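Review form for a predicted model. The reviewer records the input and the model, then writes brief findings.
Reviewer: anonymous (R2)
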Amino acid sequence: MEEIKINTDIIKLDAFLKWASIAGMGSEAKFYIQNGEIKVNGEVETRRGKKLTKGDIVEFNGETYKIV
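Model under review:
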């Protein structure tokens, strides 16, 4: 599990994917989210604007990322 530090209290899912270098561009993040490829805390998440906070777990392509 990779820990990703954020500098704010919350971060939107699409912004997190770019911050963590999971997606190179916003359009790539949007594609992953709309196709149901992203899980947040074990559940498929299809909302780009889903607000994430410290402690949340994001899963993509067999990798796990924890927000710290």
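Findings: The CA atoms of residues 30 and 48 lie 7 Å apart.
Further findings: The first strand starts at residue 2 and ends at 4.
Recommendation: see findings above.
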